[in-house]
Design a protein that fits this description.
3-stranded antiparallel beta sheet, 8 strands, about 210 residues, alpha+beta
Length: about 210
């Protein structure tokens, strides 16, 4: 029977965010369905124009969701509270991403909050290409596995031999520093995003033998 030692190593690596994404939502209420659709479209056009005037590509503003639904309000009727039709409410969700450099965030936020029908929004910092930090995390995981194996072998009084297998299952990239923040335009230049931390693991198996005495 083969004698082996199997250890799982864990490694981490950090990367500075290089992109910033703003997710916003335009909301309103109109008397008719058609008016709600048109009001939403007008707000989006105004927002795109403001973004373009600020020096950004207006076509980089993308729709992530759109809905129009009947709205109601409670009224008193025959001594009871009932729901009464109160027009149509629209919700238009949008997103835009830019490089996290210079004064991009401040200028973009200023354009968004000063446009007609300014959206509610939140900001997320991103790492555009996580492949490099993930590669460093995997290398660190192998190093960690080797370190643990040496410790265990020493404690057990055995000797590490050749590696017989390396098992790795690709992990989804989920950096721990995907922070969401509610910001005003004036905060854009004062924010320093936290580095994103990536983690990965590797399982390594070694042959082991008795130490010579």
């Amino acid at each position: 029977m083969d004698r082996t030692l199997t250890v799982t190593g864990v490694g981490t690596a950090v990367a500075a965010p290089d992109r910033v994404r703003i997710d916003g939502e335009l909301n309103g209420r109109c008397g008719t369905y058609a008016e709600a659709v048109e009001a939403s479209a007008d707000s989006v056009r105004a927002l795109k124009k403001a973004i373009g005037d600020a020096g950004f590509d207006m076509d980089s503003l993308k729709t992530t969701g759109f809905s129009v639904s009947a709205a109601y309000r409670q009224v008193e009727r025959d001594g009871a509270r009932v729901n009464a039709f109160d027009g149509f409410a629209y919700s238009h969700r949008l997103t835009i991403a830019v490089d996290a450099e210079d004064d991009n965030l401040g200028r973009l936020l200023e354009a968004m909050i000063t446009s007609e029908g300014a959206p509610e929004f939140h900001v997320t910092y991103l790492v555009s290409d996580p492949s490099a930090p993930m590669a460093r995390a995997r290398a660190a995981a192998v190093k960690d596995a080797r370190h643990r194996a040496k410790e265990l072998a020493e404690a057990a009084g055995v000797k590490l031999g050749e590696i017989t297998s390396i098992a790795y299952v690709s992990s989804p990239c989920r950096p721990s520093a995907a922070r969401r923040m509610m910001l005003s335009a004036s905060m854009g230049d004062s924010i320093t995003p936290e580095d994103a931390e990536y983690q990965d693991s590797v399982t390594v198996t070694w042959e082991i033998s008795e130490r010579s005495r």
